[in-house]
Amino acid sequence: MGVHMGGGGGGGMWGGSNWRMRELAKTERLDWIILKRALRAFVPYWRNAMIVSLVLIATSAGGVIPAWLTQRIIDNGILQDRISLVIALTIVLILVAIVTGLLGVLQTWLGNVIAQDVMADYRLRLFTHVERQSVGFFASRQSGDLVSRVMNDVSAIQNVVNNTLIGFASNILVILSTLVFMFSMNWQLTLLALVVVPGFVLPTQKVGRSRQKLQGKIQERLSTLTVQLTEQFGVSGALLTRIFNREKRETARFDQDNRDLRNLYVRQSVVGRWLMMWIGMFSSIGPALLWGYGGWLAIHHEMGIGTIVAFTSLLSRLYSPFSQLAQVQVNLLSSIALFRRIFAILDIDPEVADGTIELAPGSIAGRIELQGVSFSYQRDTETPTLALDHIDLVANPGEMIALVGPSGAGKTTLLHLLPRFSDPLAGRMFVDEYDARTLTLDSLRSQMGLVPQDPFFFHDTIRANLLFAYEDATDQELIAACQAAQIHDMIAGLPEGYDTLVGERGYRLSGGERQRLAIARVLLRAPRIVLLDEATSALDTLVERQIQAALTALMQGRTAVVIAHRLSTILAADRIVVLDHGVIVAQGRHDELLASCELYQQLYHAQFSEDGRVPGTLSADAPEAASSTPHGGKGKGGKRIALP
What domain range includes position 434? Predict the structure, then answer.
């Protein structure tokens, strides 16, 4: 009955054991694949690795010479009153120590050079790979975790090189050279010395596994703290924390995580100390056995005192490598876990694939066409909810298209598809006669300029933030772009002018100043296509007029797709596109839609008719801007800004 019950439901104990064995085998195969992949990163540095190998051989051989010299000094020099031999061997002993020390320095230097080269390669690979990801990649991940993987995880590779790879080779060579020399002197004492080796190996392996688990928890806690610091030390996080009075709670959360990290480090240190105590105990037992048995042999004139002293001095070279070798498996597992985290990022294929056709900036007319474009943020489900559903849209060169619709209608999603921040689930997008997927991302985006609703600026000078759009721009081009964007006078009035720091995310600037500076940045790029998400924040009349004048300069002669929040924008648009639940429900001019589209009527009365401004076009609001726009040149698009 017992056998019958054990065999039911999936094989009982033996079935479970077989399953665990299969899973273990699969894990080991996967670990081996990861390890081989990790080792490929060291291939470019094989020359330095060969030199390190030669140095290891030399230092291993040189490590046993002092013991051999010590034996000769005692047995052939001191005990036989041969002072000249003692002096000569002492000089040789000093020279060997100097040479061995220098070789050790060379080994450490080369090992760290290899480690730092591999670390630099991985940091660059991770940074480059993350830079190729779509915007959705960053929306679904914490920036602090990415920073932790690029910095903390990659930095741990140095331990992989020094402790695992070089350490393994060094320990093997030291053990072999030491055993050869010890057996050549006395095989009985050598076997006696090896009796206590299991006392080093067994506890070391067990303690190593415990330290590995603790190290994994430490890395996780470090990542958590990095995420919190990244969020809290940013201006946005700091403002949010203060407006909701969360300082004490965030401090308490940091304090708890910080204490957890502290406790993990303490546990790791204590576990390591238990190991050191165990090793220290057997390090004393080994020499005691040698002195006892060796002393008995010396008393019976079967062995010289020098041999016993030499043997004792060699024990540390024998026991220490054995204890370190016992941790190789643990170090390898830790290394594999480390590389698994790195490869988890490197193995994410970019959602947006680069094309092959390269276009020069400003070489297109600026026509945009969407054919049956659908998009969903739920890519991994069989029935995704569509943010855009079969969109057909054409924007002709120089045409201004205004997008309107309730919140969640898909306006921002459509705008972000144009520069291929993400790719549609279905359908195609064309720029002039080119399928956008066939163009390189650089050349596609060089034709476009985006002014987001909340412009981002780096914690740098105004000049540096402008040059981010066009790094070869001259001072005259910077000034002309800022004049067209109605912000030069403000910048010129600052004590440091264009060298003024804007603060993180531009928080030292007002909302209107950030908008105009973002417009100047796009003007400097001189794109053929302008993408604009108008700000919804309330602005005073003067700032409103300045921004509208800047927008007139920005959109003149260019194809423009604008998410409209102002009455003046929809009145000035060549065509208004009404979106609802990801579907285009109507297109046309303002008067046409007001007469024929119920949704547009609702939007108009709710959002636009009460904006408190006199209806009119952009140019009517700021007639002086059109005449001073420093644009001209070939075709519909503007050329590089030049001083008027």
Answer: 358-447+530-537+550-635
Domain count, the chain: 3
Q: What sections of 400-449 are H helices per DSSP?
A: 411-417, 441-446
Of 8 and 158, the structure prediction assigns the larger pLDDT to: 158
Per the domain annotation, does 392 fall within a domain?
Answer: yes
Phi, psi of 449 (to 5 degrees): -130, 130
The three-state secondary structure class of 395 is strand
My answer on whether 401 and 252 are in the same domain is no
In a domain, 417, yes or no: yes
pLDDT tens digit sequence for 240-254: 676 667 788 888 888
Which pLDDT score, from 0 to 100, does residue 168 have? 82
Neighbouring C-beta atoms of residue 59, cutoff 10 Å: 21
- Asked whether residue 398 falls in the same domain as residue 327, the answer is no
CA distance 551 to 542: 14
Asked if 157 contacts 119 with a C-beta cutoff of 8 angstroms, the reply is: yes
Does residue 310 share a domain with residue 214? yes
CA distance 166 to 105: 14
If one counts every other C-beta atom within 10 angstroms of the C-beta of residue 467, the result is: 18
CB-CB neighbours of 141 under 10 Å:
14
Is residue 352 included in any domain, yes or no? Answer: no
620 has pLDDT over 60? no
DSSP letter at 495? T
Query: Which tokens belong to 319?
Result: 């026991």
Cα-Cα-Cα-Cα torsion 212, 214, 218, 224, nearest 10 degrees, comes to: 110
Give the pLDDT score at 310: 80
If one counts every other C-beta atom within 10 angstroms of the C-beta of residue 43, the result is 8
Nearest to 555 by CA among 475, 487, 617: 617
pLDDT of residue 194: 81
Check whether residue 124 and residue 155 sit in a common domain: yes
Indicate whether 626 belongs to any domain. Answer: yes
The yes-or-no verdict on residue 20 having pLDDT over 70 is: no
Cα–Cα dist 269/404, whole Å: 62
Among 154-158, 282-286, 335-339, 557-561, the range scoring the smallest mean pLDDT is 282-286
Residue pair 480/643 in contact (Cβ under 8 Å)? The answer is yes
Hey, what's the torsion of the CAs at 244, 245, 249, 252, to 10 degrees? Answer: 140
pTM over 0.70: no
- Give yes or no for residue 1 having a pLDDT over 60: no
Domain end point (choices 346, 378, 409): 346
**Domain end (from 296, 317, 346):** 346
- Two tokens, residue 512: 């209107």
Q: What is the CATH number of the domain that holds 69?
A: 1.20.1560.10
Torsion angle of C-alpha atoms 34, 36, 38, 42, degrees rounded to 10: 180
For residue 529, what is the enclosing H or E element? strand 529-533
Contacts of 630 (CB under 8 A, 6+ apart): 480, 483, 484, 553, 641, 642, 643, 644
pLDDT greater than 80 at residue 210: no
